[in-house]
Write a structure and sequence with these properties.
27% of the residues lie in helices and 30% in strands. It is α+β, with helices and mostly antiparallel strands. It binds guanosine-5',3'-tetraphosphate (G4P). Guanosine-5',3'-tetraphosphate is lined by residues 18, 20-26, 47, 89, 140-141, 143-144, 257-259.
């Protein structure tokens, strides 16, 4: 195998998803610690000062003290080159959170052991399932009193509809957390609190048959309970099956405590064995192989004004095949132009690093003079193909936009169109009007503030937003629909996107069901196409 193929095959690119506060940041921090990317855990996002340093880029984030955007971290561990795509943890997350999952080959789902499956996990999980990407579950905070382990697994299976396969099994929780039992090696790994940022290693491994030792470490009651649970588990849980894991049908489950740094390295080691090398991607000419094919990439995120001093806009792209070299010329398919990407960079913790080369599986950010859109393809100049578009995710909050100074119509239309092009918001129109009546839809309400702030600060346009009661939007899949004949519920609203595609807004799920019932053959979808 050539060096080039080695470089690609050692890449592992995954996203971390969780409900806010489940411990995603803490876990990421510990991963970086193992990778040697930071010296002491905590320095990536140590509370007040640097906590949001990784992706803070807009005043609004600082004012609110939350991260609006997602970022990418790269580090090396055990011969692998790992790219972690962080997704904003706040509940006011945006479509970017969803799109980030489009750029990952697998996802790590962090669940708080005392809370189980929570709302945001459910939403993100849906996208993983749609893409059939492998999902790895880390049940965190075992150093606190946890829900019953079997119940937790049951909840994942029932709520998310995915089979579970525990790779290890917790012994006690909270004050009585004794460690985990590793099923593959039939060893108990005893719990030790290494919160201060040292690496694991002090933990003792005890074979399940070493009775005396086991008794002295976990005590008689826990030993008995563990043996009972192992029996139950071996009889009842889904069997380990790598094919099913890689097809996204079965999730391996791990238990640990990110804060006290227990179970993190065990997780990392197993995870790296099970997760995939960069996967081939679908394009209009067929699957593009990451190693066989020359450079290609697609844009999954556009971020404006990361650095206010430069008023720049950065397009993030996932390299899907081949090697990228900063000096080479590439073709931007949608723009029909051959160009050199400017200032290719990688975001590493709180700094940006200018890159000279990158490989399939990597994420790079390039300076965007306003030419890229979400979903665009880049490839070698001699080639001509397009990656499958990134779906448009259903916004859940809607508002009518009123422009306060009608003299600034041009700036307003320019501003709102550009912000929509970056994918932070979606804009729609009343069905029978033009740009004068704009309805904006967002995935998280924070995006309303972002829109208002940016229009004022970047385009000098003031707006007022009037919230609308709708919570659900559906794209109409039927090609030959006569909208005038469509019979919906009284609270349904017909709108169109900028391309003129018809859409429906609903106040509740019930109305969606009624509308489908009343219109024979009507097909509605939660995801639109770019
Ligand atoms: P997030 O990114 O998913 O939103 O969660 P984050 O890592 O910020 O963790 C949320 C809170 O949970 C933090 O506490 C963090 O210290 C705590 N935490 C994370 N993992 C564990 C764990 O394994 N055990 C326990 N007991 N706590 C954990 P905080 O008080 O909000 O912040 P801080 O003061 O600790 O920074």
């Amino acid at each position: 195998m050539s060096n080039f193929a080695d470089e690609i095959n050692k890449r592992r690119t995954f996203a971390i998803i969780s409900h806010p506060d489940a411990g995603k940041t803490t876990l990421t921090e510990k991963f970086l610690l193992y990778g040697g990317a930071i010296n002491l855990a905590g320095s990536v996002k140590g509370k007040a000062t640097a906590r949001h340093a990784v992706s803070d880029w807009m005043e609004i984030e600082k004012e609110r003290g939350i991260s609006v955007t997602s970022s990418v971290l790269q580090f090396e561990y055990g011969g692998f080159c790992i790219n972690i795509l962080d997704t904003p943890g706040h509940q006011d997350f945006s479509e970017d959170t969803y799109r980030t999952l489009m750029a990952a080959d697998s996802a790590v789902m962090v669940i708080d052991a005392s809370k189980g499956v929570e709302a945001q996990t459910r939403k993100l999980f849906k996208v993983c399932v749609m893409r059939r990407i492998p999902i790895f579950t880390f049940i965190n905070k075992m150093d606190r009193d946890a829900n019953d382990t079997f119940e937790l697994l049951d909840e994942i299976e029932k709520e998310l509809g995915i089979a579970t396969c525990p790779i290890n099994w917790p012994i006690g929780s909270g004050k009585n957390f004794k460690g985990v039992y590793e099923r593959e090696t039939r060893c108990v790994i005893t719990y030790s609190d290494t919160e201060k940022g040292t690496k694991e290693g002090q933990a003792t491994r005890i074979g399940i048959d070493e009775e005396e030792l086991l008794l002295s470490h976990i005590g008689g009651d826990f030993k008995e309970q563990l043996f009972d649970e192992i029996d139950l588990l071996d009889g009842a849980s889904a069997e380990y099956d790598l094919d099913r894991i890689q097809a996204g049908e079965l999730t391996p489950v791990f238990f640990g405590s990110a804060l006290t740094n227990f179970g993190v390295e065990i997780f990392l080691q197993h995870f790296l064995k099970m997760t995939t090398t960069p996967l081939p991607r679908k394009a209009d000419i067929g699957l593009i192989d990451p190693v066989e094919h020359d450079f290609s990439a697609f844009v999954f995120k556009i971020q404006a004004n990361m650095n206010k001093a430069h008023r720049d806009r950065v397009a993030f792209m996932r390299i899907c095949s081949g090697r990228y070299d900063a000096s080479m010329e590439v073709k931007h398919i949608q723009g029909g132009k051959v160009m050199r990407l400017s200032q290719p960079q990688q975001i590493m913790a709180d700094e940006r690093k200018i890159l000279s080369e990158a490989y399939a599986g990597d994420i790079i950010g390039v300076f965007d003079p306003g030419i890229f859109s979400i979903g665009d393809t880049l490839c070698m100049p001699k080639e001509q193909f397009q990656y499958e578009g990134i779906p448009t995710f259903a916004p859940e909050h809607f508002a009518r936009v009123r422009q306060l100074d009608t003299m600034k119509r041009k700036q307003f239309v320019k501003g709102i169109t550009q912000i929509a092009q970056e994918g932070a918001i979606q804009i729609f129109q009343e069905f029978n009007t033009g740009m004068e009546e704009i309805i904006v839809g967002v995935v998280g309400v924070l995006q309303f503030d972002v829109l208002k702030y940016r229009l004022e600060n970047e385009y000098n346009v003031e707006i007022r937003l009037e919230n609308l009661p709708y919570e659900h939007i559906r794209w109409i899949e039927n090609k030959d629909i006569d909208l005038d004949k469509l019979t919906g519920t009284s609270d349904m609203k017909k709108i169109k996107d900028l391309k003129g595609n018809p859409l429906l807004l609903f106040v509740n799920q019930w109305s969606i069901g009624m509308t489908i019932e009343r219109n024979n053959g009507l097909i509605l979808s939660e995801f639109g196409r770019n």
